[in-house]
Amino acid sequence: MTKGLTTMRFLYGGFQGGPGAVGLLALRLVAGSAMMFHGWGKIQNPMGWMGPDAKVPGILQFLAAFSEFGGGLAWILGLLTPIAAFGILCTMAVATFMVHIPAGHPFVGKPGEPSYEPALGYLAIALALMLVGPGRLSLDYILFGKPRAPKAATPDATLA
């Protein structure tokens, strides 16, 4: 087995078909769209969306903006889904455990109050997509999951 094939099998495992693929498509479309909206304002100023007094380096701000906006687009398309999910998972883990919980935000806040419910929810979705994969209704399946037709045997030149 080639190294590339082993890596793809590790990243994708099997591709869910049938009703499960439809459910994964719906999850990817809704969560991916929402994630893109969360990242839209950040991607407009990717190195400084936290403001000039932020203690977070610009490169980390960029990674968060890119993972939210680009990762959301990748979820919608079902393209490089495990990689996008990993980026979103890391970003949401930082938001949950280094921002919201230390600030004392509740899991579910009153209307207009910050809470860590959305970040933890996206973290759970990212984990699910990493473990289950994008399903057969994805570009990942077209590119990496469809069984390939075996190559036709070429006649041995020594027999000719």
Salient structural properties:
160 residues; mainly alpha; 0% strand; elongated
Account of the 3D structure:
The protein is an all-alpha fold. Helix 4 packs antiparallel against helix 5 (117-132). Helix content is 62%, strand content 0%. The mean pLDDT is 90.
Helix percentage: 55-70%
Main β-sheet description: none
* Mean pLDDT over the full residue set: 90
Strand content: under 5%
Number of helices, where a helix is a run of at least 4 consecutive DSSP H or I residues: 6
**Rg for CA atoms:** 20 Å
Blueprint (SSEs and pairs):
Blueprint: H1 3-12, H2 18-44, H3 58-77, H4 81-100, H5 117-132, H6 139-145
Summarize the model shown.
With 160 residues, the protein is mainly α.
